[in-house]
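Weekly modeling sync, notes
Attendees: S.R. (lead), two postdocs, one rotation student

Agenda item 3: backlog of single-chain predictions. S.R. asked that every request posted to the team notebook include the full sequence so nobody has to chase files. The rotation student volunteered to paste the first one in as an example of the format we agreed on. Action items at the bottom.

Example entry:
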Amino acid sequence: MVHLGNDASKTITEVKSAIAQKNSGIVILVPESAVGPQVAAEAKEARIPLPISDEQVCVSGSKPADRAEA
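Predicted structure, as returned to the notebook:
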């Protein structure tokens, strides 16, 4: 478990680190919706499951209304 605070940059760094460590999945509560698309893309490219909390993570934009299926 990693506490990200409100740091979007740290979020991406930690996601990439989890992927590099060959984790079998990533569970995340993104600190801001704007990083959602990059988090989703990183997980999808690595073929790692990305269960999401009750927060809305946008795959294709920074607003929940813009969300798309991963």
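Discussion: group reviewed the output briefly. The radius of gyration is 11 Å.
Action items: rotation student to repeat for the remaining queue; S.R. to check formatting next week.
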